[in-house]
Amino acid sequence: MSKANDRQLSEDGFNEKVFSTSKIKMPKLNLEQTKVQIKTEEISYRNAPPGIAFSMSGSKSVEYAIYSIPLSGDIDLFVHLARPYIDRRVTYLEYNTLYYKEYSNSKLSGNEDLINAIRNRVVNFTTNINNSLSQFEQELNQFYDTQLKSAIEDFIKSEIAKRNLKSDAESKLNPFA
Predict the structure, then answer these.
(1) What is the CA radius of gyration of the chain?
(2) What are the structural domain ranges in the chain?
(3) Are 100 and 125 in contact (CB under 8 A)?
(4) Helix and strand element counts for the chain (H, E)
(5) What is the pLDDT along the chain (177 residues), one digit of tens a residue?
């Protein structure tokens, strides 16, 4: 704002322009674009995910469902707000996508009860994250309305007054004007 010229500072709507460019781009889970795949992984004692049982000798092939949920908005803010719900063993973030893995001791294909249980856990997981994002967005909007708008207006008024004072002093200093 302090780099704006006098004309820009005095324009109608300048404070709204500054306000809109100062807003945080809220993170959002784009649930309607979620993709799901069933994959298989060799599991041994060393890389066993939580909840998978097997004997200590050898390894076995385990099916898992992996959900890829695209994200938009400020990813760093998302990481901070979703941290309580992220378990790195089964959820992770890669670029602008949140991945959620769900392993099973049973075959997923054709197992309707297991499929429904996994779907319900994914819905709960995303609901918890969305609730956290929504709560933060409400707090942020309240901050925008109660503090940021008035702070921008006050700063613009102060900057205009400071420039007018300087301009007035410069004109008074010129003995030939």
Answers:
(1) 27
(2) 28-110
(3) yes
(4) 5, 5
(5) 556 666 666 666 667 777 777 778 999 999 999 999 999 887 766 666 666 665 556 667 788 899 999 999 999 999 989 989 888 878 999 989 999 998 887 888 888 998 999 999 999 999 999 999 999 999 988 988 887 777 777 777 777 777 776 766 777 677 776
